[in-house]
Amino acid sequence: MKVGIIGTGNMGTILLEALITGGAVSPSDLMITNRTKPKADRLKQVYGDITVENSPDEVIKQSDIIFICVKPLDIISLTKEKAPLFSREKCLVSITSPIQVPWLEQLVDSSCVRIIPSITNRALAGVSLFTFGSSCKKHWKDTLWEMFSKVSVPLEIDESIIRVSSDIVSCGPAFISFLTRSFIEAAVAETKIDEDTATMLSENMLIGLGELLKQKHYTLPTLQEKVCVKGGITGEGIAVMEQEKGELFEKLFRATHKKFADEAFHIYKKFNS
Q: Where is the Pyrroline-5-carboxylate reductase catalytic N-terminal domain (predicted)?
């Protein structure tokens, strides 16, 4: 089975690296292309057996599964333009949330799936979000589910919660990284600790926290209860956080959902043009 990736930007590259590292796809079965070809060539320098093609046409023609990892507005243009190449026996996979699978099914004859990966998949961890098209063949459902089980926890998700699920799974690592960086900067500003030490301590704290949850020693609520002794220092810090956070996360979700709605509107207009 040949797997194609169109677009080797951040997520396209992470997807490729995860699939190879997890043993989901052999490099010799992978073919890639990118608008800026040197980006694709650099990946071949690392994974010598992959094939770099000069155009999406060659990738689509020679692949059984085609991951489209370009910008959302470009997906519609590319899919419309290359529609005759997406024959019935192939499977088209989009990795962007604003594009609904039924839109793709109206453009091509192939099976269509949306899979939203996460940067955590690079560590063979985290969740990947699945939405199958109504006409997607069972063979492709099973194949992709097995493939992504090697790099993540695959989860089929309803369209009504696709954005918030993406916020948690895909955007979440960036949000947590921002909060952690703010935590480190405050520690450096308010105490005598240096940035390198604070960063090392914070990174290893996050790794340890992840292991506690992974090994199911605690849930998030029970973990907080264990650390936050009544009348203790942690409790004082939690009290400040409760007082200061306000509607931070509510506003975050409002902002991401608004951006999502705006993108989906413009994409839908392009889809119908």
A: 2-97
